[in-house]
Structure formats: C-alpha cells, structure tokens
Amino acid sequence: MKRKTTRNTAFSGKAVGTNRVHAVEEKAGLGLHVAALRSAVPLALSGLLVSLAVSWVVLALTNFSYGLWHDHAGIGAAIDEYGASNQYRQGFHLTTREQRIELFAGINRAIHQGGEGLTELTYVVPGHAPQTLLREPEVIHLQDVANLIDYSTYAAVIAFSIWLGLLLYYMRSGKTVPSLQHQLVGTVLFMVAVCLVVVIVGPVKVFYALHVLLFPDGHQWFFYYQDSLMSTMMKAPDLFGWIAVEWALLAIACFIVLQLTAAHLVLRLQKK
Question: What residue segments make up the domains of the chain, in order of their start?
Fold first, then answer.
C-alpha cells in the first residue's frame, strides 16, 4: 500500500508540473499574440484610412451607384411621390431616370471640385421653364460638404505617409510585416465597435450628430422634402446609409488587397 501511494504521489506531482509548464507556455503565447496585435495596429489603422480614401474615389468615379439605388432602394418612388409637393420648384417628379442620374452626377462632380458648378445645375420638364436644382441654403450646405472633402484629402495624405513610412521601416529593419490576420483582427474589432455604437445610438441620431459636429453653426443641413429637391432626390438620409454599406464593403476588400500586396513587396525587397 505504501509503494502504491508513493507512485500515485509521484505521478500527481509530475502532472502538476506538466500543467504548470503548459500554463506558462499558454501565458507566453498569449503575450506574444497580444504583442503582435499591438504592433499591427499602426499599420492596420493607417492602411484602413488609405483604403477608405481609395474606395471613396472609386465610388465617386462610379457616381456612388446612384442608378442602382434609384431603382432598388425606393429613391425613384420617393421622387415620384414628393417631387410634386416641393414649394420652390415645379415638376421634378416629371424628370426621367437619366435626368436624375445626371443631376446627381453634377452634385458629385461639384463637391469634389470645391463646390464649382452647384449653382449651374438645372433641369427641364414639359410644361415648365428651365429651373435650377438647388436653392441657396442647399448650395451653402453642399459647399460645406465640398470643404469637408477637401480637408479629408489632407487627412488621407497624412495616413498614406504614415502607412508608407511604416512599410519602409519594416523593409529597412528586416522585420516581418504584421500578418494580415493580426491586422484584420484589429480592424474588424474597430469596425464592429463603430457599428455597435451606431446601432445602439441609432443610425439617424448618429447621422444628425455628425452634421452638428462637422458643419458650421448657422448653416442649414436638415431639409424637408417639400423644401429641397436635393433631399428628395437622395431620399435623405436613406441614400447615405446605402453608400455607407458599399463604402465599408469596398474598403475592406481594398484593405485586404492593399496590405497583402504591400507585405509581398516588402518581402521581395528584403530578399534583394
């Protein structure tokens, strides 16, 4: 009996020692994983901002898929319903799909060219003289949007400089670029956190809060459909929600391609 107890005690001590080793190894592995995530954050965030900028340019060049949203997101129906009730302009509900797409394209071009051309947007429908699309408060608001886009360009340049600088650092130091997995974990967690905030607070409330924060005091940014063809033809804020969805999806795809290509390029340059 004593021998059996001694053997059991020995086996028990060995098992405890093995468990302690495993615990230490797991703790060390977790520490390395956390360290890898931390090192990936600067490259991931700067790369995300670059990806957002690139995807924005792509969407702008494709007119933010306005034709698609016009046909399948209720925008066309909203124009047909509310276009006739505008108290400052007449007959907008009589415009064709092609006219609406072209007018939105005109707004799109203008806000990316410092607001130039906003006052020149006009439409013609049967039974009415040519009319300008936008009233003065709408022009002022879209000019504010154009200014915001201009400022965002500087932010994109700064983000690109940081991103490129980090890649040059990895190339010259010979260190490995953080894996896409670690970068995606940080990026996805960040985007999920943002989405949760939006869902909890409410998309419309977040939309309004951003307008209050970003636009000058005293400048109108909320427009009723009966006062604004701009709001009517965008079915505001619905169109902005659809644009946000396609922007996020395109940015994620761009991020993956951008970071994989950059890591591959750095690795090739390190081997030379």
Answer: 42-271
